[in-house]
Amino acid sequence: MRLFYRCCKNRVPIVIDGFISSAAALCAVRLNPLIKNYIFPSHLSKEPGAIYMLKEIGLEPMINLNMRLGEGSGCPFAFS
Description:
The protein is mainly alpha-helical and 80 residues long. The protein has one domain (2-65). It has 4 helices and 2 strands. Strands 1-2 form a two-stranded parallel ribbon. The N and C termini lie far apart (26 Å).
């Protein structure tokens, strides 16, 4: 979660990619709502809770390829 705070503090955007980073982003946004302005979800994980976390944060993923890989596969698609 510290990474989210640092990005917000330094006004640097951060891409979240998948279920685990979405969970960390949700925790960070609940502690400091301003962090939401710097978060960009790359894709919608196929994990069941992923859509609920992004809805709770209030963000839409860039792509949805039904991926459930967990190794940052959505980021290259988001940046291309």
